[in-house]
Amino acid sequence: MTSSSAPSRKALSKIATNRLQKELVEWQVNPPAGFKHKVTDNLQRWVIEVNGAPGTLYANETYQLQVDFPEHYPMEAPQVIFLPPAPLHPHIYSNGHICLDILYDSWSPAMTVSSICISILSMLSSSTAKQRPADNDRYVKNCRNGRSPKETRWWFHDDKV
Amino acid sequence: MEDYFSDDDYYYSDRDSLDGLENEDSGPQWASKGPTSKVITKESLLAAQREDLRRVMELLSIRVHHARTLLIHYRWDVEKLFAVFVEKGKASLFAEAGVSIVEHQDLDVRPPQTVMCDICIEDLPSGETTKMDCGHCFCNNCWTEHFIVKINDGQSKRIKCMAHKCNAICDESVVRNLVSKTNPDLAEKFDRFLLESYIEDNKRVKWCPSTPHCGNAIRVEDDQFCEVECSCGVQFCFGCSLEAHSPCSCLMWELWVKKCRDESETVNWITVHTKPCPKCHKPVEKNGGCNLVSCICGQAFW
């Protein structure tokens, strides 16, 4: 069993493939500041390096995001998690799951990988304490067996961080 | 239509005996002695729904898909919808339900030859794109894919626009037209979901609980805690959809049904594991030893 919880793998639809190829080209021309796409030949799973923004709690730290795309991307949200070790943050669980509304209920097909990255960096940058969510242990225990964060019913209660 | 109003479709339900506790000042709904429930057959469902849609369309001068969006949001409670309209005004009523009626000024401006779709990031002739009432324009292929994903996800009743943070509900005729081009079966499913919303999202209407299902639903007029009878002959409590149980409360009845179910398990166990005593007829379980057992009444038997 892998910790990276591969979602049920259905090949990308034509719309998804075209769109991801376009996003990749756009990324190469104009990558979001602080992010580096680790080149692979797998269009369906991107691994992206995140550098903590200077002047924030995560300055000089590097983390890895794993983005898995479903068959019907972008009509369906991608699955985005931090690969271990996940940053210490009140909305990031120790298994790498991220509590961020745009990854789940508030996803819209008009968003892109790039816009997700910017939201995640802004979430990291606005943090004032390096700590795990209060319910971390309970949540992580419930997610064993490689459950996807997209199956979680998230409760977005805090819009400050 | 005629089905819906024909006498055959009217069923009078008896007031349950709690009625005795009510007196004259308990409100006008108790005073009326008219029909309190009626049967909606598969055939009259469309007409029943159209009637509510028509009332909302006429009062607010809006098109059918906007009326449906409002009614789904307000769970087919026309009076509640009108009350919100009077209290908070049209703008707030629409915004809450995700209805956006934008006055488009671009009628006399010639649309551009090509439009860039922000979803697939392609330039397309404007004829292959669709602009929703909220003003957001995307290409037909992307819209279609979006609708298919949402219908398969069980969200037919509230398919939102694809733009980020746009709360508008998509025009049902656009959904129907685009989806039926590639997936006629799914378009039918979409229509069925919209039609059945009138029953499933409506506190005044419930499916008849008969098995096998007779296909009917029952609509009650004012009292949602009455007992009703479907034209298939099934009588049930409108509150809990279980068999009619007045004067017992729904909660008590549920507990009773559960108890009976448990008890029947006991009966099963008794038939399998015991033998009645020939003298006192009590069930006796042999808990070991030889085949000669003695009952607590003193009788011994094989």
TrEMBL record, chain A:
The keyword Nucleotide-binding applies. InterPro entries: Ub_conjugating_enzyme (IPR050113), UBC (IPR000608), UBQ-conjugating_AS (IPR023313), UBQ-conjugating_enzyme/RWD (IPR016135). Pfam families: UQ_con. Its EC number is 2.3.2.23. Keywords: ATP-binding, Nucleotide-binding, Transferase, Ubl conjugation pathway. Residues 15-161 form the UBC core domain. One of its GO terms (molecular function) is ATP binding. The active site is at C99. Accepts the ubiquitin from the E1 complex and catalyzes its covalent attachment to other proteins. Belongs to the ubiquitin-conjugating enzyme family. This is E2 ubiquitin-conjugating enzyme.
UniProtKB/TrEMBL annotation, chain B:
GO terms for molecular function: ubiquitin protein ligase activity; zinc ion binding. It is an enzyme of class 2 (transferase). Pathway: Protein modification; protein ubiquitination. It catalyses: [E2 ubiquitin-conjugating enzyme]-S-ubiquitinyl-L-cysteine + [acceptor protein]-L-lysine = [E2 ubiquitin-conjugating enzyme]-L-cysteine + [acceptor protein]-N(6)-ubiquitinyl-L-lysine. It comes from the Eukaryota. One of its GO terms (biological process) is protein ubiquitination. Residues 1-35 are annotated as: Disordered. InterPro entries: ARIH1-like_UBL, E3_UB_ligase_RBR, IBR_dom, TRIAD_supradom, Znf_RING, Znf_RING/FYVE/PHD. Residues 1-11 have a biased composition (Acidic residues). Keywords: Metal-binding, Repeat, Transferase, Ubl conjugation pathway, Zinc, Zinc-finger. Its EC number is 2.3.2.31. SMART domains: IBR. Its cofactor is Zn(2+). Residues 113-302, 117-165 form the RING-type domain. Belongs to the RBR family. Ariadne subfamily. Might act as an E3 ubiquitin-protein ligase, or as part of E3 complex, which accepts ubiquitin from specific E2 ubiquitin-conjugating enzymes and then transfers it to substrates. This is RBR-type E3 ubiquitin transferase. The lineage of its organism: Eukaryota, Viridiplantae, Streptophyta, Embryophyta, Tracheophyta.
